[in-house]
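Hi X.,

You mentioned you wanted examples for the new student's onboarding notes, showing what a folding record looks like when two proteins sit in one file. Here is a clean example. The first protein comes first, with its sequence line followed by its structure tokens.
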Amino acid sequence: MEELEEKFIRKIETISMDFMRGTMQEINWSARLIGIRGARGVGKTTLMLQYIKKNLPLDGSSLYVSLDNIWFAENKLTGLTDEFIKKGGKFLFLDEVHKYPNWSQELKNIYDDYPDLHIVFTGSSLLEILNARADLSRRAVMYTMQGLSYREYLNLTLNLNFPVVSLEEILKDHVTIAGEVNKTVKPLQHFNNYLKSGYYPFFVEEASLYHQRLEEVINLILEIELPLLRKVDIAYAARLKQLLQIIAQSAPFMPNISKLSDRIKINRNTLISYLYFLQEAHLTKNYIKIAKGITRLQKPDKVYLENTNLQFAFAAENTDKGNLRETFFINQVGKANEVEYIEEGDFKINNTWVFEIGGSGKKNEQIKHLKNSYRVLDNLEYGSGNKIPLWMFGFLY
């Protein structure tokens, strides 16, 4: 256990506190069992270490460990926890829990056996907390972490402190909000950089290697996480990457399952399941016309990549501008709102507001007869009336 404690202290000493994600304020840290799901690279580890450094004493009462550490090849989590408690432990932070066999059963036992212990754990977007042997759904408070919003990207890169703006505030007062932002920064000046390489926080480490690093993240999801957590045949990894490239080059992708199945040589029903798995892994977003979610047996009507950076990773020379705009909008708005794909307009939010996404010259003809309808337009610093700049929806979280 001593070597794990030493590694924890070294990590805490080197972690930067200059910028913290908005997720830090969203989490109820007083809960006894907290789970944080998210795609690789969105900053889950950094978030936990920053919370410890900011809020907890380094007196032995707190411990951070990653469950992919080789120490766990010969040692059990329950044994570590017992020793930790006997030495005065109160706060246990567990990273990458999906890498540890039988993690959910041991975590359930730890939660039940040590009622004074607070536990925070992180894992893949594919993490399941509901199963027959160890149902954590009644015990754990779960959060999902996305990549950086455009607001967070500006705050991080320019050392600014823009606050979160609600969707209702944008719809009601976007002209005033745009004026306040433009006093500090020209939002369009940095927007394309964000769309290309600003979603995953590791861009600050070595910008020139960003897309290489992103490709490594994608490969780990396709070749390790999907086979491990969804039993996807690893032989299909290359075909799934081909599918993601097709989605990236589309405007947007409206799948013909039969043709696609023939093209990438995957059985039709298997392909539909894999589209669902890709969404769970935060690589895609699937939409059915006016439908509450999507089941594993439904063919989606439209498929987007989860964020715009993925489009540049898969199709840097062939990114479709319209697809980029829509991908940005649903990624930023969809974090805390229900997004539906519709025939008239592009999207309906929270079953109330209709949005048409386009370039600055997009006319109002398609949606002018619809109640609560708005045009969301690219390349605008300011809007007017129901015409709102696209970049502004990046301030929602």
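Then the second protein repeats the pattern, sequence line and then tokens:
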Amino acid sequence: MTDTTNPLYVKLLGETARIGWAELQPFFARGALLWVAAEVDLVAVALAVAEDDRASVAAWLGGGQLAKLEESRAENLLERDPPLWAVVVAPWVLVQERGGEPEARH
């Protein structure tokens, strides 16, 4: 469960925005995109990355819910150009495909 009252969570939530694939391509070219599965709270993952929560990050990586964006997925995103949500946690840009507004998941 994510503490949605955490000030950093609230800050990251406010910095999360809809974005198109065209704007993300330069970050992909630099190897700076991390893909977050739709069933995971994008902001919670960003918080874990920002706070260096290695256990949570390792669990998501191990479960395939967090990964460096692969070329095959990038090609698919280029073809479909779906709405994406992204948040920056330097040096990474975390990106997720889903419809609607970002919401806190408990």
